[in-house]
Amino acid sequence: MKNDTSSGSPQGEPVSPTDKPTSEQGPTRRRFLSQVSAALAGGAILGKTAIASAQSENPGLVIGDPALPGHSDPRVRESFALRRATAIAEAKISVPRHTTNGDEERYPDKSGTYSKGLLQDRIGVVNPQAYQSFRHALNTGRFADFENIIIGGTRTLNGPMGSYAFSLEGTDDAQFGNAPSPANQISQVVVPPAPALASEEYGTELIELYWASLLRDIPFVDYASHPTAVAATQELSSMPTYAGPRDSNGHVTPDLLFRGSYPGETVGPYVSQFMITPTSFGAQPLSQKLTTYINGSDFMTDRVTFQQVQNGIDTGLSAQIDPVPRFLSNGRDMGAYTRVDVLFQAYFVAFLALSTMRVPRNPGNPYVGSRTQNGFGTFGGPDFAATTTAVARPALNSVWYQKWLVHLRHRPESGGAIVRQILRGHGHTLMGRVNDNVLNSQAVQSSFNKIWRLLPGDGLSRRLAHPSRLSDRTWHSRGRLYYRPQVFLRRRFCHS
Q: What Å distances lie between residue 69 and 64, 66, 212, CA to CA?
């Protein structure tokens, strides 16, 4: 895979006013669209611009298009014209560069690249023929070639062919990359390359993950007084490449530990109130308590089980269930939650909680104040619920495109394996190298007696047979085109 996989020019062709999918016409139409704009600016749950009338109010559209011979129904013609104009406008959005971190080319043994589930030769190193079969399948995209991938056990890869799926809503996955996308209302770089394996940035990420693993069983409310959490904040505060939030003095505090950098993520308690507020799914009550695991159960702490997991072999081990349902309170609970959550569960349940609390609709909702009607299939409860969940699949496939077809970033436990090999004197067995900052870190030293410097999992990581994500931006950049939810789990690392 080349560092730059751009399939288009950096500059996009401008969209002329006639290419816009809709146009304003008449005071009623203009007022309706102005209210929609206000709702969007205010963060309302708007998944699409609805056409409020069955009558054509879009004279800019070519209703009598010759591409639809024999169709006289005006609604069908307007629908076709809307779809085609939208598709043309979206197709004109430029394709940015897709820049990788270069590790696939940098290390011929692929020790810096995702290979979990493939046949492994030794710790941190994939079998060359297995990797070649994997790379060939990714290059061709053919089902038969994926069936010929040489895997190391019975664990199957987690849906790589979803990377090739097309979405019929929004711009294509290839149109999100290492650049902002103003046409999609995204002002920051959408998918920057992951930090390179040997970089200081990746070393700092591993340090944070080691601390997260050490604090997995500590309640968030105890961080301020817990010596391990305090030590974590001190070490991360000294790291110039730490990407998490800091206070006004540039320090990482226990209250900011492991939090993300999106607006609002440093405000309030560790667990969002949307995660603990009782609500209901129709007539079924939801207490929001969850089934979690007994503290102290860590996995992949020895070379045998680590290698079994990397090969996709069942270790025969399982996490022990806590028989008492509890509210989410620590890192292990978050791992238990994300291990089995339904794809859109967090933000859908947050929507249910908002409904239970009877939060008023955004004032920009065009039905607010109407004397004769309320929103329902458009800008109403059913629309909100359906749109909230509809974002999940196209967002997932968009992320999968980046994970499998562009970046192939290895999972955190693979970085931990490289740390282990180097510090135990086996660095010569692989080509990959990590930064000295993690090799000399207090986090790794604190983990040494317990886990042999491997980065332990809580049970979830055994199931994750897909490349690691690059950042939260990858998911949200696609999702925000449909729905911009608050961040309900205010964590960048839901599990370690």
A: 9, 6, 63
Query: Residue 239 in contact with residue 349, Cβ under 8 Å?
Result: no
pLDDT tens digits, one per residue of 212-254: 999 999 999 999 999 999 999 999 999 999 999 999 999 999 9
CA 381 to CA 386: how far, in whole Å?
Answer: 9
Backbone phi, then psi, for 460, in 5-degree steps?
-65, -40
Mean pLDDT lowest among 8-12, 252-256, 283-287, 290-294: 8-12
Report, as an integer, the average pLDDT of 42-64.
Answer: 39
Q: Identify the burial level of 166 via C-beta atoms within 10 angstroms of its C-beta, where 0-12 means exposed, 13-18 middle and 19 or more buried.
A: exposed
Q: Which helix (H) or strand (E) holds 429?
A: none
The percent of residues above 90 in pLDDT, for the chain, comes to 65
The neighbour count for residue 26, using CB atoms within 10 Å, is 9
* CA dist., res. 232 & res. 7, Å (int): 42
Tell whether pTM > 0.90.
no
In 3D space, the residue among 467, 451, 343 whose CA is nearest the CA of residue 402 turns out to be: 467
Q: Are 242 and 260 spatial neighbours (Cβ–Cβ below 8 Å)? A: no
Q: Which of 257, 321, 290 has its CA nearest to residue 459?
A: 321
Alpha-carbon radius of gyration of the chain: 25
Element spanning 97, H or E: none
What average pLDDT does this structure show over 107-124?
97
> What are the backbone angles phi and psi of residue 113, rounded to the nearest 5°?
-125, 155
pLDDT digits (tens, 9 = 90+) for 296-327: 888 888 889 999 999 999 999 888 899 999 99
Sign of CA dihedral 29, 30, 31, 35: positive
Contact by Cβ (8 Å): 402, 191:
yes
> Tokens standing for 366?
């065009």
Which pair of structure tokens corresponds to residue 169?
């809503």
